[in-house]
Amino acid sequence: MVIANHPIIAKAHTNIALVKYWGKLDNQLIIPQNDSLSITLDEFYTQTAVEFLPSLTADEVIFDGQVLSDQASLRVRTFLNHVRDLAGIDYRAKVDTKNFVPTAAGLASSASGFAALAGAASRAAGLNLNRRDLSRLARLGSGSATRSIFGGFVAWQQGHDDATSFAYPIDEQPTWDIAVVALVLTAKQKKISSRVGMRLAVETSPFYSAWISASQADFKTVKTAIQNQDFELLGHTSEQNAMRMHALTLSSDPNFTYFNADSIKAMNMVKDLRLQGIPCYFTMDAGPNVKIICQGADAERIAQYFQTEFGEEQVLVTRPGSGISISD
Ligand code: 2P0
To answer: Mvd1 C-terminal domain spans which residues (predicted)?
Structure first.
């Protein structure tokens, strides 16, 4: 194995889950409690350069031009240890990462971040992993990163150990016209991280077992909807799945929610649009921003409707994006 003698650059897009991951079976290996399914988004991505250098005595992590403190870079350095173990090397690395997400959109995600880091660091360390193994490696950084290795519609197979928990593509270049309208309702950092929130749900929500059985059924339904290009089935099931996930936060002890007043307003506006005959469905992750799944032909009209309420800059239209790319 030969480590690269120049920085390796990887680009990975973020993704939005239609069937959510919310809870781990194994907190170290990040083995989830259920299968999940997402769309990779073209507008939002992370680009990361990594070089392992014999001259370095410690890992150096630069994020959007700022050198991170030891505390802030802990997850990245822990991840680099996995790569060093895998490659059998001991060198420290220089990591330079940039998020390409519209200013303060609050959509930056550990998904694109750890996927890009997995791609750049593994190749810089001399490993030449296939995409399945890259998704397993990305998983050790963050669960949602597992899916960002692939483009279009992607599934993350739950599995039961490190070897069997990985992502695979369902439809990398969808031939039907799907779009996601992202509403930036706040760019504020969330109070309860996904990691803490999902652990609370597993440990305290009396609804957790119902979530697992419902989400496994949703996974099958959304897969069928993709195969049949059945937009309404895809949208309806995704919206139901999102609300089932958020019911876990409401039923955790202590209870909490990622909704704010604007999230609820936006969800009601989506329902109004449906009553007007425009098929569109909402989903939300571990924060107040709402994403609207729609057909490409309706995207601009839907975006305008929300721009009137929330402002032009707060509404972004995005489409299915590609999987990871890594320089030589
Ligand atoms: C998902 N989310 O499926 C779900 C839906 C947010 C809501 O995966 O602890 O940052 O690093 O594995 O992946 C966000 O959680 O959590 C997430 P870790 P992650 O996209």
So the answer is: 180-314
Claim to verify: residue 163 and residue 249 sit in the same structural domain: no
pLDDT in tens, 27-43: 999 999 999 999 999 98
| C-alpha 301 to ligand 1 mean position (Å) | 30
Ligand 1 mutation target, pool 13, 194, 219, most atoms within 8 A of CB: 194
Q: Is the CB of 249 under 6 A from ligand 1?
A: no
Interface confidence (ipTM) of the complex: 0.98
Classify residue 17 as left (phi > 0), alpha (psi -120 to 50) or beta.
Answer: beta
What would the pLDDT profile of 175-189 be if each residue is shown by its tens digit? 999 999 999 988 676
Overall number of domains in the chain: 2
Question: 320 CB under 6 A from ligand 1?
Answer: no
Per-residue DSSP letters for 69-114? PTTTTHHHHHHHHHHHHHHT---EEEEEEEEESSTT-S---HHHHH
Domain that holds residue 142: 8-172
C-beta 112 within 6 A of ligand 1: no
